[in-house]
Design goal:
Layout: H1 3-13, H2 17-28, H3 33-40, H4 44-53, H5 58-64, H6 70-75, E1 100-101, E2 109-110, E3 114-118, H7 125-131, E4 140-143, E5 147-148, E6 152-155, E7 170-176, E8 187-194, E9 197-207, E10 214-218, E11 227-230, E12 234-244
Parallel strand pairs: 3-6
Antiparallel strand pairs: 1-12, 2-5, 3-4, 6-7, 7-12, 8-9, 8-12, 9-10, 10-11
């Protein structure tokens, strides 16, 4: 049995799962359980049940908290971060609202940047936008202080990630050149080939049980079923880094 399996086996038997969840809140400076549920990519009632039943999805938690020291996570002892992330200038644990900023250990926060806002539909989708960025004319620019580096922004269409994202929101993204570089469980904008037609969608990307040739695409909206998709059908993808929502009175 591998070391990580031994640790998981032991914590299933001994450790208080509520404390593990609370340590994640501490590490990311989450203000409430709703922010924790959004970070883990689970429904809020699922997180409530975890607390009630003193149980968690270990694979999900460890994949989302890969930079945290497992011993600290399960016991509260030792360094919070794994050794390679201690004193790293690219590590951030801040949860922000309005706009929502999704930060990873690889993020480099930029004090001021002008992010081009594109109409992806007018740009013929992600493929055209990514392959010939110099030929695309942004409809505007967005300035977000202290945001992670972004390549562009666009308007949300569809409701697959509702209520985290809704139609009309703006998301800022970072282009991903190689699907092998994805962060499991994170939210992505994808350009998928569906029998010759282009399909743009926002999904969480998880590992598929069908093998390495597939990924599992999961929506936040519970009315959208998860789907295992061939990696070869994903033509382009971008990591969602920031979301902006306008709240106005009619």
């Amino acid at each position: 049995m591998q070391l990580i399996d031994v640790k998981i086996h032991k914590l299933r038997m001994v450790f208080d799962k509520e404390l593990i969840l609370n340590r994640i809140k501490e590490a990311y400076n989450f203000k409430n359980s709703a922010e924790l549920a959004d970070f883990l990519g689970i429904a809020r009632n699922t997180l409530t049940n975890w607390y009630k039943r003193n149980s968690i999805d270990y694979d999900l938690v460890f994949s989302k908290c890969e930079h945290l020291n497992i011993d600290w996570l399960i016991t509260g002892k030792g360094q919070m971060l794994r050794g390679e992330y201690i004193n790293s200038p690219n590590t951030s644990y801040v949860s922000e609202n309005s706009p929502a900023v999704y930060k990873l250990k690889t993020d480099t926060v930029i004090e001021t940047q002008r992010i081009p806002l594109f109409d992806i539909q007018a740009s013929a989708g992600l493929t055209s936008l990514f392959d010939t960025p110099s030929n695309q004319i942004p409809i505007d620019f967005i300035s977000i202080p202290n945001a992670p580096k972004c390549d562009g922004a666009t308007y949300v269409r569809g409701d697959s990630m509702y209520p985290i994202l809704k139609a009309g929101d703006i998301v800022c993204y970072k282009m991903v050149a190689d699907i092998r570089n994805i962060f499991w469980g994170e939210m992505y904008l994808l350009d998928i080939d569906v029998e010759g037609d282009q399909f743009l969608t926002y999904k969480y990307i998880q590992k598929s049980t069908l093998g390495d040739e597939y990924v599992r695409l999961v929506s936040q909206n519970q009315h959208h079923d998860p789907k295992d998709e061939l990696k070869s059908n994903i033509k382009k993808l971008a990591l969602v880094k920031v979301s902006i929502r306008y709240n106005t009175l009619s």
